[in-house]
Amino acid sequence: MPSQIDLLHQVSKIISSGSTLDQMLGELIRLAVQVTNCDACLIYLADSAGEIVLRASQLPHAGEIGHLRMHPGEGVTGWVAEHKSIVALGSKASTDKRFKRFPGLIEDTYEAFLSVPLVSGGNVIGVINMHHKIPHAHTPEEIALLSFLGEQMGGAIAKSDLADENVRLQEENLDMKRQLETRKLVERAKGILQHKHKLTEEEAYLRLRNESRRLRRPMRDLAEAIIMSEELSSKVDLRGETRKFRPGEREEGPVPTPDSN
Questions:
Q1: What CATH code would you report for 169-239?
Q2: Which residues of the chain does CATH 1.10.10.10 include?
Q3: CA torsion 88→94→100→102, rounded to 10°?
Q4: Helices 201-215 & 140-197, crossing angle to 10 degrees?
């Protein structure tokens, strides 16, 4: 079992490595397994709605990651998040009155269960659970190390989670901006088709949509092509207009002036 100093060194390396949130959660699981020699480890993080969501697991849970969620106070995990306290169940964990079984989690059939809050700035930002298949006496040293780990990693995870959320929001904003730009281009192209071919708004839209499907090209591309064609046509029309000449100027060029000599 690593000492507190060893853990601190490892945590410092993880924090300074610039790891992504998923990588950081994976490292936290590795350290938790190293401390407790558990058979399974799960990490839950609080989301913006205040629910506790499964975000990482030692065992594969592709269907549950990001989807399994609970309210504060729900199950042992929710109780730990609500009370900011550790729960150590050495055997028959499922008989605890706070325990709640979740379909798809084989860990809920294991005997021993240690649940520790992840803390940042005095607030619980998540919970880490360690499971043993057979009864396991959680020693005071083991609990102290996991508590220390939860406090040290909590701040880094919260910061990384916030950074990921900011990136997600920026991507959503860019996507919304692009959708708005596409809508404006399509509306403009519809107007051109309506005017040019005497179509109704619905007929112009259907023509765009059908051409998009026929050519297997996005409507945005077709709309841009229609607008560009219209702009080029307008420029040609302008060049073909009769030119108005200034006084003293002919079609073939300026009127020559007498030689100063």
A1: 1.10.10.10
A2: 169-239
A3: 110
A4: 120
Mark the ranges of the chain whose per-residue pLDDT is less than 70: 1, 160-169, 236-261
Q: For residue 23, how far is the Cα from the chain centroid?
A: 15
105: amino acid identity, one letter = L
Q: In 3-state terms, what secondary structure has residue 106?
A: helix
Please tell me whether residue 90 adopts helix, strand or coil conformation: coil
Residue ranges of the chain that CATH labels 3.30.450.40 = 4-157
Write the CB contacts of 145 (distance below 8 Å, at least 6 apart in sequence).
1, 2, 4, 7, 35
Contacts with 171 (C-beta within 8 Å, 6 or more apart), sequence order = none
d(CA 208, CA 197): 13
CATH code of domain 4-157: 3.30.450.40
> Alpha-carbon distance 211 to 189, whole Å?
13
Cα–Cα distance, 259 to 12 (Å, whole number): 88
pTM over 0.70: no
Cα(192)–Cα(228) distance, rounded to whole angstroms? 11
